[in-house]
Every structure is written in structure tokens, then in C-alpha cells.
Write a structure and sequence with these properties.
Number of helices: 9
Oligomer: single chain
Structural class: alpha+beta
Largest sheet: 3 strands, mixed
Radius of gyration: 20 Å
């Protein structure tokens, strides 16, 4: 029921031009089914970066394995990157997908993983339960933990980046929405998908914060400018 509600929420709000949500829902259901029916004694290695998306996933997967006799190891790619890849803090990945495959091989080969104790698993399960009961629709990684936020929490940042781009252009002229979305994602210290930023941009257009030029309600390819 929760999964169906989540995808219904996304379907109502996100631009799904390529009809990917239905396939995503099938993939998630398949993954959950495999986890629930894995035999006792299975071994799992969970990779996650310090962002709300992957850390929430860690807690959810641990919850799905609740009560199952199995070994769960955790690879924190943020910590591993700091120790093995970029010890001088020259680069900090926001999500595991940013790390090159050969770097991931190095992390795995050097054994940068730890087995979760029963206490660790119980704590993660409880954190999932607490998160799942919250009504906020946005989660961000703040102060070393997943925290819920209101849906408009990034609106001021989006507006700020638009002002910056207008200053660079030296006039308030229309720009491609994709340019602003890319700027927001590039400057934000969070791992947030472009579909959510685009959704908030459409909300700001409806609130008359931005003007739009093009078929913006139905496609993601349009131009915008601050009023």
C-alpha cells in the first residue's frame, strides 16, 4: 500500500514524458520480493553514500530483512572515498554513482566494509519505522542523519540560483529550464533528482515567481525567467 501511494504521489507531480515510473515500480516490487524470499544464511553487502536517498534505502532494506538470519555488511562510500580515494578532501561524492567503477573495485578489494551487529540492525530498523511514519515528503541528509523537510524547502535555493544566472547574463531574460535545474543540482550539497527540482520549478511558475515560455505543464523542455 505504501509503495502504491508513493508512486501515485510521483505520478501526480512529476513529468513522466518517457513513461518510466511504471517500469520503476515493477523494478522496486521485484527487488523487494527477492529480499523477502532470500534463504536463511544469505550474505548481503549494502553500498551507500551519505545522502538521504541511499541512507533511507539502507534503513528500508535492513527493515525488510528484519528477523532473517543473515550476514549484512555495509560499505559507506563517503567514508571509503575520504580514506582511499581522495584523502585530501579534494572531492566528496554526493552519491555512489559518481564514483568510477575502478575506484569502487579498490574500495571492495581493500575490504572497506563492516558487518552490522544485531544492535546496528535494530537501530536501522527503528529509524526506518520513524521515517516511514513522518508526513513530510522530502528527506535531506543533515548533521549526519536523514531528516524530513517540507516540500518547499529548496524553493529559496532555486530562486537564488536563478538570480545568479540572470546576473551572469546581465539581464532578466528567458533561459532553458534545464540550465537552471542543472545549476541547482550542481551547486546543491545534496543528492536530489532533477525531476523533483523540475516539479518545484513548475510550482514556482504557478505561484507567479517565474514566467514560462513554452509547453511547460506537459513537457520538461521550456524557458523560464524570474518575474
Amino acid at each position: 500500500t505504501g509503495l502504491r501511494t508513493r508512486f501515485d504521489w510521483m505520478q501526480e507531480r512529476m513529468t513522466d514524458e518517457f513513461e518510466e515510473l511504471a517500469d520503476q515500480q515493477k523494478s522496486v516490487k521485484k527487488a523487494i520480493g527477492r529480499l523477502l524470499f532470500m534463504p536463511e544464511g544469505s550474505r548481503f553487502v549494502i553500498w551507500c553514500c551519505d545522502n538521504a536517498d541511499e541512507q533511507t534505502g539502507l534503513r528500508y532494506v535492513t527493515y525488510l530483512l528484519k528477523g532473517k538470519v543473515c550476514d549484512i555488511s555495509l560499505v559507506n562510500t563517503t567514508e571509503a572515498s575520504e580514506d582511499l580515494i581522495c584523502p585530501k578532501n579534494t572531492y566528496k561524492p554526493l552519491h555512489t554513482g559518481e564514483i568510477a567503477p575502478e575506484k569502487l573495485q579498490t574500495i571492495y578489494r581493500d575490504g572497506f566494509r563492516r558487518v552490522l551487529t544485531d544492535h546496528d540492525r535494530e537501530a536501522l530498523e527503528m529509524e526506518w519505522m520513524a521515517l516511514s511514519e513522518r508526513k513530510e515528503t522530502v528527506r535531506l541528509w543533515k548533521d549526519g542523519r536523514v531528516q524530513p523537510f517540507p516540500e518547499d524547502c529548496l524553493d529559496a535555493f532555486i530562486i537564488g540560483q536563478a538570480k545568479k544566472l540572470h546576473r551572469e547574463l546581465r539581464k532578466i531574460d528567458y533561459m532553458l529550464s534545464a540550465r537552471l535545474i542543472g545549476e541547482v543540482i550542481g551547486q546543491l550539497d545534496q543528492y536530489i533528482g532533477d525531476t523533483f527540482i523540475e516539479y518545484r520549478l513548475r510550482k514556482l511558475i504557478r505561484k507567479a515567481v517565474f514566467e514560462a515560455e513554452g509547453d511547460w505543464p506537459r513537457t520538461a523542455f521550456y524557458k523560464i525567467r524570474l518575474r
